[in-house]
Amino acid sequence: MSGIEDLKKLVIDFRDARDWKQFHNPKDCAISLSLEAAEVLEHFQWKSKDEIDEYLKDHKGDIGEELADVLYWVLLMSNDLDIDISEALKKKMEKNDKKYPVEKIRGKHTKYTKI
Amino acid sequence: MSGIEDLKKLVIDFRDARDWKQFHNPKDCAISLSLEAAEVLEHFQWKSKDEIDEYLKDHKGDIGEELADVLYWVLLMSNDLDIDISEALKKKMEKNDKKYPVEKIRGKHTKYTKI
Amino acid sequence: MSGIEDLKKLVIDFRDARDWKQFHNPKDCAISLSLEAAEVLEHFQWKSKDEIDEYLKDHKGDIGEELADVLYWVLLMSNDLDIDISEALKKKMEKNDKKYPVEKIRGKHTKYTKI
Amino acid sequence: MSGIEDLKKLVIDFRDARDWKQFHNPKDCAISLSLEAAEVLEHFQWKSKDEIDEYLKDHKGDIGEELADVLYWVLLMSNDLDIDISEALKKKMEKNDKKYPVEKIRGKHTKYTKI
C-alpha cells in the first residue's frame, strides 16, 4: 500500500531532478492532464463491450501506464497549487453523498437535477 | 496522510452504495475521466500567467474539486480493471527515469526523441 | 448551401466587432476547440445505442449547437493561422485515400499499420 | 471557395467507399472528434507566445491536417445526425450576437453572466 504523499514525492523528485519546474505553469500542466486522459480514452474507442473485454486481457499494462500518466499530473498539479488532494477527494465525496442521496438514487444514473 | 487504497475504498463504497457499477463500463468511465480533465483545464483558459496567479488566490478550492473528480475516475477505473495504480505509477516513473536521463535532460524540455 | 468562406466571414466579423482578436492566441483557441469537442461528447455519455437513438429525437438542436461551436473554432483558427481549411481537408482526404486503400480495407476498421 | 456540402460529400464518399458507416455510432464519432481536437492542442503545449510564432513557420501544414481531421468529424456527424451545420452555425452566431452585445462587450473577454 502506498500513501498519496509517497507517490507525490516520487513525482516531484523526478521533476526536480530534471529542473523542470520552470516549465510547469498551471495552464500547460492542465493541458497535459487533458491530453493524457485522451490517451486513456483512445484505448476504448471503436470497441464494443465484448471487444473491450477481449482487449483488456492483453492491454492492462498499457492502460495502467496511461492512468499512471493522468495520476502523475494530478499529483504534480496538487503539489504546485498547494492542494491537499486526499482532503479534496474526501470533501468532494461528502458533497456527492449529499447531492446523490442513496435512498433516492440507488440503481439510477440520473443527474441530481432530475431527481 | 492517506493511502491510495483508503481513497479507492472511499470511491468504491460511494459507488456501490448507489448500485452504480452496472453503468460503469470502461468506455464511459474513460469519457468521464476525459470530461473531468477538461473541467480542470477550463479554469486556466484565457488567462495570462499573472491572471492565473490572481485567480488561484480565490479558486484553489474549486480546482481541488475538479482534480478530485479526475482522481475519482483514476481510482475507480483502476479498481474495475484490476490495475494496481501505485505500482503502475512507480513502474512508469522508472521507465521515464531511463527515457529522460538526468544528465542529458536537466533543464531542457525536449522530447526524448530529440535528445 | 454555404461556402466555407462565407461561414468564416460570419465568425470573423462577429469576433472583430467585439475586438476580441487580442485574446485569441493559438494556445487558448486550441483549448476552446478541445473544450467544445468535450461538450459534444458529453451528450452521448452513459447512453446505450438505443438510449442515444431516443435522445437524438429531442436533442438534435442542442447537439447542432455544440458542433457549431467546434466549427466556430476550426474556422477562426484557420483564419488566424492563415490555413486554407478546404484545401487542408481535400489534401488530408487524398492522403487518407492512399493510407486506407479501398480494396484492402473495405468493411474493416483496422488501423493502417495493421493491414 | 468550397461549399460545406461539397466537403461533406468528400468525407461521406470516402467513408462509404470503405463501408465504414457500420462503425460510426455517434458516441465513438464524438470520441474521435474529441481526440482530434486534443491533437490540435498538443501542437501548442509547453510553448510561449514567441515559441508558437516560431513553430508556426514550419508547422502550418501539420496543424492544418489536424484541423482538417476535426472538420472531418464535424461534417460526418452532421451528416449522420441529419444536422444542417451551416444553419446551426448561423443560428448559433445570432444567439451569440444577443448574448454578447457589441456595445457592452467590445474589448472585454468577460463571460456574459458577469456583464
Question: What would you say about this model in short?
Answer:
Four copies of one chain form a homotetramer. Chain A has helices spanning 4-17, 26-42, 49-80, 85-99, 102-105.
The total of helices of chain A stands at 5
Q: What is the oligomer described by this structure? A: homotetramer
End-to-end C-alpha gap of chain A: 38 Å
What is the string of helix and strand elements of chain A?
A: HHHHH
- What is the C-alpha radius of gyration of chain A, as a whole number of Å? 18 Å
The geometry of chain A reads as globular
Overall number of strands of chain A: 0
Question: Your description of this structure?
Answer:
The structure is a homotetramer of 115-residue chains. The model of chain A has no long low-confidence stretch (mean pLDDT 93). Chain A is globular, with a radius of gyration of 18 Å. Chain A is mainly α and 115 residues long. Chain A is built from five helices and no strands. At the A-B interface, helix 1, helix 2, helix 3 and helix 4 of A face helix 1, helix 2, helix 3 and helix 4 of B.
